[in-house]
Amino acid sequence: MSAHGLEPLTPAERRVLALLAHGCTNAEIADSLVVSPNTVKTHVSNILAKVGLPSRHEAGRWYWEQLEQKRRNRPTRRRERQLGPNQPRKSPETGDATPKRQRKFTRFG
Fold it and tell me: pLDDT tens-digit profile of 21-41?
């Protein structure tokens, strides 16, 4: 299987793979993308060859796994809020980690 995810696939192959993963037949994919069924068969064959999978069912499952992995690797809004503007960042001049913004906290009462 490909370690590079969906990158080796062309945009047309990605569209075919997405429809294939949703359970569409070659005829349904051809109608949806306005191409011939033979073109869809060619794209499916290319997908299987590039990804190294034996069947279209495996390719559909692989597609969902790739999307899940991509989703897990993407930072969530919550994680972005937690990191926020006060996280240390490296200065371009010195390479030292310096806070982006410093707050002064005072206690009342």
Answer: 999 999 999 999 999 999 999
Closest CA to 40 of 64, 59, 62, 67: 59
Tokens 């569409």 map to which residue?
24
CB 57 within 8 Å of CB 24: no
DSSP, res 75: P
Domain count of the chain?
Answer: 1
Residue 79 burial (10 A CB sphere; 0-12, 13-18, 19+): exposed
Query: Which token pair is 79?
Result: 């994680």
Q: Is residue 1 part of a domain?
A: no
What does the block give as tokens for 41?
Answer: 């068969």
Q: What pTM was computed for the model?
A: 0.65
Phi/psi of residue 80, each to 5°? -65, -40
Q: Rounded distance, CA 78 to CA 72, Å?
A: 13
